[in-house]
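Example A, followed by Example B.
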Amino acid sequence: MSKTRRPKLSARARNHAKSERKRLTSLTLLLALLVFCILLAAIGLAVLGVFILQWAGVIASLDEEVDLSIVVAFMSAISLILAWVLVFFSIRIPLRPIHSLISSMNRLAMGDFSVRMEGKGMLANHPAIRDLCDGFNKLAEELENTEMLRGDFINNFSHEFKTPIVSIAGFAKLLKRNGLSDGQRMSYLNSIEEESLRLSYMATNVLNLTKVENQTILTDVTSFNVSEQVRSAVLLLEAKWSEKDIDLRLDFDEHMLEGNEELLKQVWINLVDNAIKFSPPCGAVLLDVQDGGETVTVTVSNTGPEIPEEKRERIFSKFYQTDESHATEGNGIGLAVVKRVVDLHGGRVTVKSENGMTTFTVELPKQPL
């Protein structure tokens, strides 16, 4: 029977949520205090108005017999009118950030991802308002970056799809010619097979990303040998590492894990393929699986160019490629799939790149929550 993973906040996330609640509570108390002060001011002005009218002789002295209900009704009416006027004009000041947020969100919804929020007014320096502005600006920045990457992805992906299709069509046309030798025919067929597999790989990655992005809970959980699954991923990519004469090092024991076997298979395929792709000819790829008690840790390392520190923060984003020249194969989807699948399992994936070695580390709980 399938298990579902219930989201569990980390200690850091719980502390952040608690801090947010405190800031929002303080903002609520501040606004409530402002309204209370306005009401007190309105009542004070109303009482002052009554005494002024009494002093001017407009109403009888309070020492004389008067209908108190008239005085109370008069004071209440004056208080309500003054309170409404004061609240109407005063509350506009603390509500400016809300109005600014609504306006900015409308611009964002219309596709203006360059919009940013700045705190203004008497509450601009309040932590809750600063968090509101920072959160919105981060959202707008991410959407702007994603839109740029999406545009680049469409252009590059369209080109990458078109190239193998044109190659397949060209080789198929050549196969129609008479007088081809067996060697030529086999060469053309091999090229068609290679380009077809390339198309299949790209389409599979796109479908996998769509699938995991729309998945919110972990399903089809089974117990399986993760060490054997990693070895299978290596064997599946044998043609690639054999072609580059990669020194492949696998030295680990058998470890069991509970999870979605099909999804995790894509994680190891993408990580190993990524390591092979960025390893130089005759380079080395190292794989290790370790038991951490409650978790299983899989590391995939490769020799080759280091990933700049500023690019490591975005390496798991959709459509992002560290090789901006696009000289190497890839479409910026594989690592996004890895990150999403690991998140679904309640694990974490990190990257370290230094001293000519790049290492991806995946830490997974043995039993997803």
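Example B, a separate protein, is given below in the same form.
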Amino acid sequence: MKKLFLYIFLLITTISLGADVVELKLPKSDIIVLKLMFKNGSICDVKGKEGITSMTADMIAEGGTTILTSSEIQDKIYPWAASMSVSVDKQVSIFTFEVHKDHLNDFYPIILDLFISPRFAEDDFNRIRSNQLNYVSEVIRSSSDEEYSKKYLEDLLFRGTNMQHLVQGTVSGVEAIHLDDVKQHYHNFFGNANLTIGIAGNYSSEFLSQIKSDFSKLPAAASAIPQPGKGRQPNSFEVEIVAKDNALGSAIFAGFPMDLTRANDDFAALMVANSWLGEHRKSYSRLYQKIREQRSMNYGDYTYIEWYNNGGGNMLPRPGFPRSSNYFSIWLRPVQTAKGLKGQYPELKDIEIGHAHFAIRMALREMGQMITTGINKEDFELTRTFLRSYMKLYAQTPEQQLGYLLDSKFYGRKDWLKEADVLLGNLTVEQVNTAMAKYWQTKNMFIAIITDKSEAVPLARSLRDNLDSPMSYSNVLKGVLTPEILNEDKLVQNYVMKVSNINIIDSNTTFK
């Protein structure tokens, strides 16, 4: 009997606690930001209906309520300069609402109704489903080969797990989703038990209490949240070349699973190493200097120790994409194909492949030397100083600040940006070099390459047979290069890459 009473007490206590809350009090701010983070994401997609979490989130955010249609909501909130949006990633779905405090009392009932009584109308479903289907069937393969390569690497690295498919799903998955499936998914995975509420601004304690009370009425998610899949361990280099018509270059994304996230203090040490090797959009890093600056091969070359969303559009990392299943990656922005080089320079009419093989070898060689020799004291100090200043730019608005606090909650931290600054301040060069040796390697990687059909077969042969890949320069460029660069090229062109598996994939068959 005592055990029964204890069970009932614990059950009531759990229910009454409701969602977790993350607060950011800003007494001088006139803007209220509300974020609702559900720990679900695309890992919760039903097998055979990949993309349903993203579709359900869009239906909530863009489908209106039983009282107001989506267009009626937009008409009402426009004079208030209010905004609402949703982003879905592999492990979270985050709804963001912003409004001036003077209009909060008018906006909040609409926000609440989106979750308590979503409209789920057939016309909204058809619109959202059509847009999502267009993305997975056409847009991802045609709009940006760089983004295509990043998403394809995840397909390769996480193959066979719930982390494999696009957040937006697959063609067959989206086609299989019906409105009733969305309604069921909403009940299964959008509940108060997996919800964290974030609020920022000059809000009252009464309003916060109201939010807690109102969202505690949201039913608990009916289904358990699955564990995210882990990345596969590559055997030497495993390469997949996606061949498409009229690709302007070879977009390359490579990586391997890494058992490290912001939850671990070692992450700060790898931040320094990563910044020195390939900080996103920074010209001082080694890969940028070697591949772009010295050899004019492409627009940029970067490395990452966690997922960086929309790297082509975002100069700074955005919050809202926390993941516990992580990997290291190298992004080589498109380099020229043989077809492109031949068309520009008559002196290169006899080459068989473009710059892809050389660029990969250059990146691996630089990274390998860094792991072996370590970063020196001077470069360590300069990079650490830069990072401690640079990270202050990550959260310049209340919305970004709150986003990073929610990410911190996900990783079991209180305020990652502040904690990272402390970790960086206490860091030593020895800790950075130790972390590199522990978490990084250059012998086993998955490599995804999006390239023109004319390049696919000769590039595959060069990689598979570990052929020399001499750098192909125009006569004008070669004439101004230093002997040091040309001598280094000879070392790079036969850098040993043991490729254990290589496949050529038709672009039209991907993400189906």
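On Example B: The chain is about 45% helix and 15% strand.
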